[in-house]
Amino acid sequence: QVQLVESGGGLVQAGGSLRLSCAASGRAFSAYAMGWFRQAPGKEREFVARISRSGGMTYYAASGEGRFSISRDNAKNTVYLQMNSLKPDDTAVYYCAADRFRDAMLVTLDSSYTDWGQGTQVTVSS
Q1: What's the count of helices (H) and strands (E) in the chain, helices before strands?
Q2: C-alpha distances in angstroms, 25 versus 52, 61, 73, 85?
Q3: pLDDT tens across 49-107, in order?
Q4: How many CA atoms lie within 13 A of 85 on its CB side?
Q5: H/E run at residue 32
Q6: Which residues pair with 39 in a beta bridge?
Q7: Do residues 79 and 70 lie in contact, with contact meaning Cβ atoms separated by under 8 Å?
Q8: What values do phi and psi take at 29, rounded to 5?
């Protein structure tokens, strides 16, 4: 099991940027592929991005392609989500998640992830 704590959320104007961080503790961080999800009010949680254990492979939802970038630093046990050109539709609680069983493949189903953080709020004003 790995414990995850997100940070970096906040209020930003449309067109701005934020970088979210997710710090992991517990079992070996490099043994997990990592993902970011988000949940807007009244909507289901949706996949945003995923990165393989080594960081060599990344995957994105169409909504973030070209604007979001996921990365990780295994020495710091941290995964990041750089979000640029933010839109009001990006407003949501953002969660990081760990996948113990699968590596370099696109996994968008939230039930496939084994560990979750508590989330960080991102609000984009128009």
Answers
A1: 0, 11
A2: 18, 27, 13, 31
A3: 999 999 999 999 999 999 999 999 999 999 999 999 999 999 999 999 999 999 999 99
A4: 7
A5: none
A6: 93
A7: yes
A8: -60, -40
What is the residue whose two structure tokens read 């839109």? 87
pLDDT on residue 9:
97
pLDDT digits (tens, 9 = 90+) for 18-61: 999 999 997 799 999 999 999 999 999 999 999 999 999 999 99
Q: How far is CA 7 from CA 56, 94, 106, 112, 117, in A?
A: 23, 9, 24, 23, 10
β 78-83/68-73 pair status? antiparallel
pLDDT of residue 2: 94
Q: How many residues does the chain have?
A: 126
Q: Read off the tokens for 32.
A: 């997990």
Tell how far CA 86 is from the center of its chain. 15
